[in-house]
Amino acid sequence: MKICKKTIWGLLTALVFAAAVPSYAAAAPANAADSSDNIIIVIDPGHGGSNIGGQIPGMDEKNATLITAMAMKEELEKYEGVTVYLTRYDDRDMSLEERPRAAAAVGADFFFSIHYNKAVPNRLYGAEVWIASRGENYARGYACGDLILNELCDTYGLYRRGIKTKVNDRGTDYYGVIKHATALGIPSMIIEHCHIDNEADVPFFNSPEKLVLLGRLDATGVAKYFGLRSTVLGVDYSNVPKTVVAAPAAAVVQDMTPPESAVITSAVKQDGAVVAVLQGSDAQSGILYYDYSLDGGLTWSALQKWESVGASNTVSIPGSGATLTVRLYNRYDLCTQSATVTVS
Length: 344
What we know:
Layout: H1 6-18, E1 39-45, E2 55-56, E3 59-60, H2 61-76, E4 82-86, H3 98-105, E5 110-117, E6 127-131, H4 135-155, E7 160-164, H5 176-183, E8 188-195, H6 208-226, E9 229-230, E10 235-236, E11 261-270, E12 273-281, E13 287-293, E14 304-305, E15 312-318, E16 323-330, E17 335-337, E18 341-342
Parallel strand pairs: 1-4, 1-5, 5-8, 6-7
Antiparallel strand pairs: 2-3, 6-8, 9-10, 11-12, 12-15, 13-14, 13-16, 16-17, 16-18
Helix pairs in contact: 1-2, 2-6, 3-5, 4-6
């Protein structure tokens, strides 16, 4: 898979280490304030040191997250009444527990862990956020995550994979940084910007400038959540509406069941394509993608966006075939296959 030229990605390491400073504690925020109502944000560039994260030719996730996190910090520091730290400013190992502990040490109001996604097999694309599964941290995470995804998806164009939770078999948060942040009383979020191994997402991250832009979009979402103002940017987000959800006492558990239904109600040949009406439902997490087969399930298409807001979706499938089969996928990538129908 051709992602980008090595000369472009060669800039990543140069940008990272040109900006590196000795340690977490050594780097004072540019606009640190003593006011009791000053908001403190801690941004965690995921991975680092021997923990490389996802890799594609010419790119390591640990470097990309540092560029994006630094850009997010720089953009947030253009707003009044906010102090911003990073958990790391250079390429170093940090445990999942150390990262939220660093946030607690500075009295963080919110902890954001920056990541880029990769899946096996590499069929998935789009942006998602992971939040704490219960209580006020869930409610705050949902409201903030919604605003960040608005920037990444509605403004920038990434496909919206949604706001998610994941718990382990003990019913506690699965992801370490979220679990440890919650134990320390800090609202937290993992931002998975896009899938670096899928061609659909390549145009959104394939230069250092785009990694910087993603950080700025994150910052805008955070600024809207906290209702910040910036004289430098000429914006005032104090009245931006937020999604309000209840703070659940019990954990909001990930969807572990596939869509309830996947039905092809019609399939007609038209101008070199198959125009089909698909219907599906998933009460827990909705329909996110579909794929199709025109040869009885021997081969399948790439994942397609489910762009309908309701249960029914009219799609145009290029090519011809005597039959059509589809699979519908929910937000947690579980699928249900339809019956095979004859194309008329």
